[in-house]
Amino acid sequence: MEFTLITLLNGVSYGLLLFMLSAGLTLIFSMMGVLNFAHASFYMLGAYFAYAISTTLGFWPALFIAPLAVGVIGAVVERYGLRPVHKYGHIPELLFTFGLSYVLVELVQLVWGRAAVPYAIPKALSGHLFTLYTTTFPAYRGFMMLIALLMLAAIYLMLTRTRIGLVIQAALTHPDMVEALGHNVPRVFMLVFGGGCALAGLAGVIGGNAFVTEPGMAAAVGSIIFVVVVVGGMGSLAGALLASLLIGVVQTFAVALDYSLLDLFGKIGTVLGPDTFGYPVLKLTISQVAPIMPYMLLVLILIFRPRGLLGTREG
């Protein structure tokens, strides 16, 4: 019971971090139809900006300033980068964001170097939140979960209870009508793209010190973000939340399980040796295949439910 509950909590906290990462990408795609390949790079920028700010002002100012700075950069990218190529179709947009991801990584390496930076968890959150049986749960993981839930509530309230949220939703399906009513649709697009990048930056502030802040962090999470978005359903925030939690919990449990098919056959009295056909595969443990489980899930979703778990829009 102790193992199950602690692993479940760790999986949920990891899943909520994935949701923080994928929420901005989902908003950008649902609003603009743009798959931002540089999204993970904005996550990286958020972590590095938070590190730079926290060394002088502390972690708490960095928690607010870094995402705003990343959001401003995202808005500038949309205005002077994506908007001019938008008229040429989605392929130039994809190529632009793909190239931008490499540019941002190189800029980070020029400024902060190739090695990891010492972006540490703040002392106020370095302790334990509670003890379950004999295992302690870190306070910072609880903080990560709280920030993710607050972000989810803020996005929901903004989209459903505010004027700008109603304009955003209307511009999604009827941009010409929204523009006829006097709203600047291109500016709305710029704000949405900047806001999505700011959410990625917030995830970087929270996740950078929980894991590691180094130039390869964007590549480490870049593919998993797209898995979450596709599995949940392109453009669906609820789907992104469901997929994030599902992948986070499944992968966390898988990493902690050191069992293989050989163990299963052994329990039923069948002894298999090195000469058995497929022995190298049979001896693989669940923890060894854990990294590819999200991609296996992606393949199954694309085969049996291409729209994703809760998707309503074709990718």
Produce a short descriptive summary.
This protein has 315 residues and is mainly alpha-helical.
Index terms:
315 residues, two-stranded antiparallel sheet, mainly alpha, globular, 14 helices, ABC transporter involved in vitamin B12 uptake, BtuC
Structural features, described:
Strand 1 and strand 2 form a beta hairpin. The chain is mainly α and 315 residues long. Strands 1-2 form a two-stranded antiparallel sheet. The chain has one domain: ABC transporter involved in vitamin B12 uptake, BtuC (Orthogonal Bundle). Helix 1 crosses helix 9, helix 3 crosses helix 8 and helix 9 runs parallel beside helix 14. The protein is globular. The chain contains 14 helices and 2 strands, in the order ααααββαααααααααα.
The gyration radius over C-alpha positions equals 21 Å
Q: Give the helix tally.
A: 14
The CATH topology assignment is ABC transporter involved in vitamin B12 uptake, BtuC
Outline the low-pLDDT stretches: none
Q: Order of helices and strands, N to C?
A: HHHHEEHHHHHHHHHH
- Which CATH class is shown? Mainly Alpha
Fold blueprint:
Layout (H helix, E strand, L loop, with lengths): L1 H31 L6 H16 L4 H28 L3 H23 L15 E5 L2 E4 H23 L1 H11 L1 H6 L4 H26 L6 H16 L4 H20 L4 H7 L11 H4 L3 H4 L3 H12 L11
Antiparallel strand pairs: 1-2
Helix pairs in contact: 1-5, 1-8, 1-9, 1-10, 2-3, 2-4, 2-8, 2-9, 3-4, 3-8, 5-6, 5-8, 9-10, 9-14
